[in-house]
Amino acid sequence: MKARGFLVSVGPFYGGTWNDYISLPLNDVDYVFCQFYAKDLQTVDSVVSDITSAANDLGSWDKLIAGFNSNNRNPNPSISLQSVYQLKSSLKGTFTWSAEDSQSNSPPYCIEKNSANILNNNQQPGSCNW
Known about the structure:
By secondary structure, the chain is of the alpha/beta class.
């Protein structure tokens, strides 16, 4: 696929399906969209630790995109955004589980918008609720 100009990505649950994915030939993968909502992470330290461990497992931060849930699954939005802020110099990007859930956040798409502001504009995390 890469030879035809496509980006290739995978999306494992860190701590769940991770071992199945990490054994793939990741030289052919552009991005690893790692789902950090697979576990019940409830503190900034635990999220930062898991994300850092995943980057270490990959051997680099270059391919890692951190994924968060936008509807009633830990880590909550505040913890997710504080974690992004702590890792802003290393993270290449973030994603959320579902646009429909993100639309119903207060304010709508607050995890996505705040993450973009943190990573692109070095802003402090804003308020975000489910």
